[in-house]
Amino acid sequence: MVTRVMAFSDLHLSRAKAEVLVAASGEADLVIGAGDFCNMREGLDGAMSLLKDMARPFVLVPGNAESAEELRDAAHAGMTVLHGEACEAAGLALFGLGYAVPETPFGAWSCDLSEAAAGKMLAGCVQADILITHSPPKGVADVTSAGQSVGSVAVREAIERIQPRLAVCGHIHDSWGSEGMIGATQVVNLGPEPRFFEM
Protein backbone atom coordinates (compact mmCIF):
# COMPACT_ATOMS: atom_id res chain seq x y z
CA MET A 1 0.00 0.00 0.00
CA VAL A 2 1.33 3.43 -0.98
CA THR A 3 1.08 6.28 1.52
CA ARG A 4 1.04 9.77 0.02
CA VAL A 5 2.92 12.22 2.25
CA MET A 6 2.76 16.00 1.86
CA ALA A 7 5.49 17.96 3.66
CA PHE A 8 6.50 21.60 4.05
CA SER A 9 8.57 23.89 6.28
CA ASP A 10 9.02 27.57 7.12
CA LEU A 11 5.50 28.90 6.67
CA HIS A 12 6.48 32.06 8.61
CA LEU A 13 2.85 33.19 8.92
CA SER A 14 2.23 33.44 5.16
CA ARG A 15 -1.53 33.37 4.62
CA ALA A 16 -1.10 32.82 0.86
CA LYS A 17 1.25 29.86 1.35
CA ALA A 18 -1.04 28.39 4.02
CA GLU A 19 -4.04 28.50 1.67
CA VAL A 20 -2.10 26.58 -0.99
CA LEU A 21 -0.87 24.03 1.56
CA VAL A 22 -4.30 23.41 3.07
CA ALA A 23 -5.87 22.99 -0.38
CA ALA A 24 -3.15 20.54 -1.46
CA SER A 25 -3.36 18.52 1.76
CA GLY A 26 -6.60 16.94 0.61
CA GLU A 27 -4.50 14.77 -1.71
CA ALA A 28 -2.33 13.46 1.17
CA ASP A 29 -2.63 10.56 3.60
CA LEU A 30 -0.21 12.29 5.99
CA VAL A 31 0.93 15.91 6.36
CA ILE A 32 4.28 16.93 7.88
CA GLY A 33 5.29 20.43 8.98
CA ALA A 34 9.02 20.85 9.63
CA GLY A 35 9.00 23.98 11.79
CA ASP A 36 8.99 27.79 11.70
CA PHE A 37 5.26 28.36 11.51
CA CYS A 38 5.49 31.89 12.96
CA ASN A 39 8.13 34.64 13.22
CA MET A 40 10.49 35.20 16.16
CA ARG A 41 8.07 33.61 18.69
CA GLU A 42 5.21 35.88 17.56
CA GLY A 43 1.92 34.95 15.89
CA LEU A 44 1.88 31.20 16.49
CA ASP A 45 -1.83 31.01 17.33
CA GLY A 46 -2.54 32.79 14.06
CA ALA A 47 -0.31 30.39 12.15
CA MET A 48 -2.09 27.37 13.60
CA SER A 49 -5.44 28.94 12.73
CA LEU A 50 -4.25 29.29 9.11
CA LEU A 51 -3.53 25.54 9.16
CA LYS A 52 -6.59 24.40 11.12
CA ASP A 53 -8.24 22.88 8.04
CA MET A 54 -5.15 20.89 7.07
CA ALA A 55 -5.81 17.22 6.35
CA ARG A 56 -5.14 14.87 9.27
CA PRO A 57 -2.99 13.22 10.45
CA PHE A 58 -0.74 16.29 10.66
CA VAL A 59 2.64 15.84 12.39
CA LEU A 60 4.73 18.90 13.27
CA VAL A 61 8.11 19.73 14.79
CA PRO A 62 8.95 23.16 16.21
CA GLY A 63 11.37 25.36 14.32
CA ASN A 64 13.61 27.92 15.95
CA ALA A 65 10.79 30.49 15.69
CA GLU A 66 8.59 28.65 18.24
CA SER A 67 9.27 26.45 21.24
CA ALA A 68 7.93 22.91 21.61
CA GLU A 69 5.72 24.03 24.49
CA GLU A 70 4.34 26.96 22.51
CA LEU A 71 3.61 24.72 19.53
CA ARG A 72 1.86 22.10 21.68
CA ASP A 73 -0.24 24.82 23.31
CA ALA A 74 -1.23 26.30 19.93
CA ALA A 75 -1.86 23.00 18.10
CA HIS A 76 -5.40 22.10 17.12
CA ALA A 77 -7.06 18.69 17.52
CA GLY A 78 -5.45 16.08 15.28
CA MET A 79 -2.06 17.84 15.18
CA THR A 80 0.80 15.83 16.73
CA VAL A 81 3.91 17.71 17.87
CA LEU A 82 7.21 15.80 18.03
CA HIS A 83 10.42 17.06 19.64
CA GLY A 84 12.76 14.20 20.48
CA GLU A 85 9.85 11.78 20.15
CA ALA A 86 8.39 9.15 17.84
CA CYS A 87 4.90 8.38 16.65
CA GLU A 88 3.15 6.27 14.04
CA ALA A 89 0.86 7.92 11.50
CA ALA A 90 -0.71 6.60 8.30
CA GLY A 91 1.18 3.34 8.82
CA LEU A 92 4.61 5.03 8.92
CA ALA A 93 7.09 5.30 11.78
CA LEU A 94 8.06 8.94 12.34
CA PHE A 95 10.64 10.60 14.58
CA GLY A 96 10.87 14.36 14.99
CA LEU A 97 13.35 16.87 16.38
CA GLY A 98 12.76 20.59 16.20
CA TYR A 99 14.84 23.72 16.84
CA ALA A 100 17.98 25.03 15.17
CA VAL A 101 21.03 22.77 15.43
CA PRO A 102 23.71 23.99 16.00
CA GLU A 103 22.95 27.27 17.76
CA THR A 104 22.16 30.31 15.59
CA PRO A 105 23.50 33.85 15.97
CA PHE A 106 19.92 35.18 16.05
CA GLY A 107 19.72 35.92 19.76
CA ALA A 108 17.48 35.11 22.71
CA TRP A 109 14.25 34.58 20.74
CA SER A 110 15.65 31.65 18.72
CA CYS A 111 14.97 28.11 19.97
CA ASP A 112 18.32 26.38 19.47
CA LEU A 113 20.05 23.16 20.50
CA SER A 114 23.74 22.38 20.74
CA GLU A 115 25.01 19.44 18.71
CA ALA A 116 25.49 17.49 21.96
CA ALA A 117 21.93 18.15 23.15
CA ALA A 118 20.50 17.25 19.75
CA GLY A 119 22.58 14.07 19.68
CA LYS A 120 21.15 12.99 23.04
CA MET A 121 17.59 13.59 21.86
CA LEU A 122 18.19 11.75 18.57
CA ALA A 123 19.77 8.78 20.38
CA GLY A 124 16.27 7.65 21.33
CA CYS A 125 15.47 6.97 17.68
CA VAL A 126 16.45 3.47 16.58
CA GLN A 127 14.19 3.16 13.54
CA ALA A 128 12.03 5.47 11.42
CA ASP A 129 10.52 5.56 7.96
CA ILE A 130 10.69 9.37 8.04
CA LEU A 131 12.97 11.56 10.15
CA ILE A 132 11.58 15.08 10.55
CA THR A 133 13.99 17.79 11.69
CA HIS A 134 13.90 21.55 11.41
CA SER A 135 17.64 21.76 10.75
CA PRO A 136 19.24 20.02 7.76
CA PRO A 137 22.07 17.54 8.14
CA LYS A 138 25.62 18.78 7.70
CA GLY A 139 26.63 18.72 4.05
CA VAL A 140 23.21 18.24 2.40
CA ALA A 141 20.66 20.98 1.62
CA ASP A 142 22.32 23.24 4.21
CA VAL A 143 24.12 25.95 2.21
CA THR A 144 23.50 29.65 2.86
CA SER A 145 23.61 32.39 0.22
CA ALA A 146 27.20 33.04 1.39
CA GLY A 147 28.12 29.46 0.46
CA GLN A 148 28.46 28.21 4.05
CA SER A 149 27.42 24.68 5.05
CA VAL A 150 25.58 25.23 8.32
CA GLY A 151 23.73 21.94 8.87
CA SER A 152 23.85 19.71 11.90
CA VAL A 153 26.46 17.02 12.51
CA ALA A 154 24.12 15.32 15.01
CA VAL A 155 21.28 15.16 12.47
CA ARG A 156 23.64 13.76 9.83
CA GLU A 157 24.95 11.11 12.25
CA ALA A 158 21.39 10.11 13.13
CA ILE A 159 20.52 9.70 9.44
CA GLU A 160 23.65 7.62 8.86
CA ARG A 161 22.77 5.42 11.85
CA ILE A 162 19.02 5.02 11.31
CA GLN A 163 18.89 5.19 7.48
CA PRO A 164 15.26 6.31 7.28
CA ARG A 165 13.67 6.15 3.84
CA LEU A 166 13.16 9.92 3.91
CA ALA A 167 14.59 12.79 5.98
CA VAL A 168 12.85 16.16 5.68
CA CYS A 169 13.99 19.53 7.03
CA GLY A 170 13.84 23.29 6.45
CA HIS A 171 15.48 26.18 8.31
CA ILE A 172 18.05 27.24 5.68
CA HIS A 173 15.90 29.32 3.32
CA ASP A 174 18.61 29.54 0.67
CA SER A 175 18.49 25.74 0.31
CA TRP A 176 14.70 25.33 -0.01
CA GLY A 177 14.07 22.69 -2.65
CA SER A 178 17.58 21.26 -2.37
CA GLU A 179 17.98 17.55 -1.85
CA GLY A 180 20.59 14.83 -1.73
CA MET A 181 21.34 11.37 -0.41
CA ILE A 182 22.98 10.15 2.79
CA GLY A 183 23.47 6.43 2.23
CA ALA A 184 20.04 5.12 1.21
CA THR A 185 18.19 8.11 2.70
CA GLN A 186 16.66 10.84 0.54
CA VAL A 187 17.17 14.22 2.29
CA VAL A 188 14.95 17.16 1.26
CA ASN A 189 14.96 20.78 2.46
CA LEU A 190 11.28 21.50 1.99
CA GLY A 191 10.37 25.18 2.07
CA PRO A 192 6.78 26.48 2.17
CA GLU A 193 5.49 24.84 -1.01
CA PRO A 194 3.68 21.47 -0.86
CA ARG A 195 6.09 18.59 -1.55
CA PHE A 196 4.65 15.12 -2.14
CA PHE A 197 6.36 11.80 -1.49
CA GLU A 198 5.09 8.27 -2.18
CA MET A 199 6.03 5.91 0.66
Automatic annotation (TrEMBL):
Gene3D superfamilies: 3.60.21.10
GO terms of molecular function: hydrolase activity
Residue span, Calcineurin-like phosphoesterase domain: 4-174
Domain of life where this protein originates: Bacteria
Descriptive protein name: Serine/threonine protein phosphatase
Annotated source species: Algicella marina
